[in-house]
Amino acid sequence: MIALPRAIALIPPARIAAIALWLVALAGAVWLSSSRFVVAPGFEFYLGPLFYLVAYRWFGLRWGLVTAVLTMAPSILWWGHGYSILLAVGHVLAVAWSRPRQISFSTVTLFYQLSFGTLVAVLLFRFSYNSPMEVTALLLLRKILCEVTLAGIADIVTLLIVRRAAGLGLERARTLSLQLSLNAVVSLAVSGAATLFLIGNLTNVRDRLTIVEDQIQTVVADTRASAPAAPLPPHIRVAGSAVELPLIVVPTRDIAAGAKQLGCTRTDRGDQGGPDDRNTFTYWLRVCVVAGRDGERTVLVSPRPLVLESFGEIFTGLSPLMAYLVLVELALFGFRRALGRSMRLWDSAVHSFAARQRFPRDEAPFIESNAVLNMLRQATDDYLDADEERERLARTVDELRTAIDLRLLSGLRIEDDALRFLELTPGAGACQRVVPFNPADRSTLISLRGTNDIMAELRLAGSDSQHWFLLLAHDYDAETSEWRFGCLVRLRAAQAMQTKMLHNARLIELGGMASALSHELRQPLFTISLAAENGATMLQRDPPACDRAGEKFTRILEQVARASAIIERTSAYAREERGDREPTDLVQAIHDAARFMRPVLQNRGIDLTIVPGPQIEPMMLPRIGIEQIIVNALQNAADAIEQARAEQLTAGAIRIDITKTAHHVAVAIRDDGTGLVDDLADSPFDAFSTSKPSGKGTGLGLFICRQIVDEIGGTITLANNDDAVGATLTLTFPLSHPWRLT
After folding, report:
1. Within this chain, do residues 592 and 572 fall inside the same structural domain, yes or no?
2. Cis peptide before 543 (omega within 30 of 0)
3. Is residue 43 predicted with pLDDT exceeding 80?
4. 590-606 average pLDDT score
5. Which residues make beta-bridge pairs with 422?
6. Which residues face 608 on adjacent strands?
7. pLDDT digits (tens, 9 = 90+) for 93-108
8. For 356-400, how does the pLDDT look when each residue is reduced to its tens digit (9 = 90+)?
9. Quick one: the chain helix, strand, coil %, rounded to 5?
């Protein structure tokens, strides 16, 4: 007893007020449903179907059934049975069954009443009330039209007003169902027209029967006037009717017994007890009209045949409208199915588009839907074709990326020790990447900042020195210091190509030194030839001068060794380098390169001085590459000195200074030649950049030297001497070993 008030106290006041308001509304619905609104004789509205259909739509099946029972309960008082309550419950269940199929109240009501309602009405009126067929048919049509009209009103009300998603309140619907709206409007229009036709005809029947009463009295009076002594005939006929009305003359005191003989239970303008009155079918079927009085005798006439004739005419006139209503509902049902099929095709098309699938070429029932579906189908096909092409390109890009380790870049930034960019991949999208590069490539990459289009080779930090990458970037943004687009590609053959280039450059240099080599080899060969002749002559003497001949052969061996050394140095310099680093004595490598170039320098009358500097421990360097750099530098210095002599300038000395600091070893190659010309002062290391005459140089020497130094991680510079003529080539080699980073 205490828990209930506490539970009620927990309910919000607004919800309690809403529940109370709906209970009052339900009580009002029951009160209105208990009233019978008579609009014509034999036609009356009862509002129960309107209320329980609306309650079902707003509050669900349970409240729909409760409202159906409560609003149809007064029919027990009217008709003395509960068949209407059972039909109302069945009506709500039929509507609930049809709701998933999106069928309107009016359509369900029409076919429910034509089936179950007709069966119950026929059984009730024919076997319980023993009603004539005309009355039974008219009562059935009245019930069908009444409930279909109320169902149409319920359709419109529930379409325009809906229950709020939260709470018990109502609100105006923001959207309407095209299918349900069309069904409701058309059904209400046709059933309303049929109802108005029935109401009008029933009103005419009442007026006609009122007029017929006067006609019956007039006919009886005329008959008596024409033959006062003759008995009245058993039947009379009124104007405008083909039926005969039964007539009987009874004592006035026995009017009730006489009326019973005619099948009447009452007389017009007589006792008006009970629920029946002049506005019901039963009244006109069971009433007898008092056609006249003659003293103690009364003339009674039964209008029943005339009433049945009128009801039959009404049924005949109303049947086409009912058939039209059924046809309209069938047409609406077919339209609903066609619209449903169109919507299913649209749903399939949308789902196929979302699933990236081609949807079948099914034809929709409507031309307009077909036109739009064809447009959507074509657009979907085009989209899928483009998507398949995109996927094919994506697969191709993936295969290409796998084959050459391709990376597509955006927002590329070259920092001091790494590349920072967004990597674009088909699967993962854009991912931020930071890729450190080899410190040996830092100077090359830093120099590219601010350039709109760049192309550079580099190695990544920790990678094998054989793995080179090509960096391409475009569209430099000065505000963000980034390139908008670019790519990074692995160059698997880059090192081999570079090695080939170095080898070819050395062969070119050897070709340029061919004359010096021939002069260098001519002298030991001449000495060998002369010593061999002298030795042979001495051995031919008598006695042979063996000691002198031995000296000559020793001389021959020395010169052969000298020539072999020259050939070995030339072959070593000409062989193709693999790029391997080895412990190298830098000072010894410089001396070996100088010894190789000394014949050329001596042939040109150029003095070479090497200042070794402090003791330098072996370094991990490509020995052949170091020798090539020194040879190229000496060759360029010799060419500059020779050009200076041609210009009447005093020149003829080259000096190599080797110094050491805490962090690096520096090698400075200084000459007193012509120096750098202005056009090449800013780009002496670019490929094919040369000031030599045609046929004297390729412009690749210093470019290759820079490539070798960059690979080592050192630096190379070339500048004119500030204190004298000529230029100085400076090499620095770090004492640390960045190329060993893993």
Report:
1. no
2. yes
3. no
4. 81
5. 410, 432
6. 654
7. 998 998 877 788 888 8
8. 777 777 777 777 777 877 888 888 888 888 888 888 877 777 777
9. 55, 15, 25
Whether 587 is covered by a domain: the verdict is yes
Q: Give the model's confidence band at 417: pLDDT under 50 very low, under 70 low, under 90 confident, else very high.
A: confident
Q: 718 has which bridge partners?
A: 729
- Of 578, 593, 614, the last residue of a domain is 578
C-alpha 61: how far from chain center: 40
Residues in Cβ contact with 216 at an 8 Å cutoff, skipping those fewer than 6 apart? 236, 238, 245, 289, 291, 301, 303
CB of 99 within 8 A of CB of 142? no
Q: Name the domain count of the chain.
A: 5
Range in 125-134, 310-319, 507-516 with the lowest mean pLDDT: 507-516
In a domain, 167, yes or no: yes
Do 634 and 704 lie in one domain? The reply is yes
Q: Give the C-alpha separation, 713 to 438, whole Å.
A: 9
Cα-based angle 136, 138, 144 (whole degrees, multiple of 5): 105
Position 166 confidence tier, pLDDT thresholds 50, 70, 90: confident
For residues 718, 722, 725, 726, the Cα torsion angle rounded to the nearest 10 degrees is -10
The last residue of one of the domains, among 438, 472, 491, is 491
Same domain, 448 and 572: no
Rounded to 10 degrees, the C-alpha dihedral 403/409/414/417 comes to -50
Residue with tokens 């339900």: 26
Burial tier of 589 (Cβ tally within 10 Å: 0-12, 13-18, 19+): buried
Task: Domain of residue 230: give its range.
Answer: 224-308
**Is 0.85 topped by the overall pTM?**
no
Looking at residue 358, the DSSP 8-state letter turns out to be P
Is 34:74 a contact under the CB 8 Å cutoff? yes
Can you tell me the distance from the alpha carbon of 435 to that of 414, in angstroms, rounded to the nearest whole number?
10
Q: What is the per-residue burial (b if ≥16 Cβ within 10 Å, else e) of 278-304?
A: ebbbbbbbbbbbbbbeeeeebbbbbbb
The string of DSSP letters for 335-346 reads HHHHHHHHHHHH
pLDDT at 455 over 70: yes
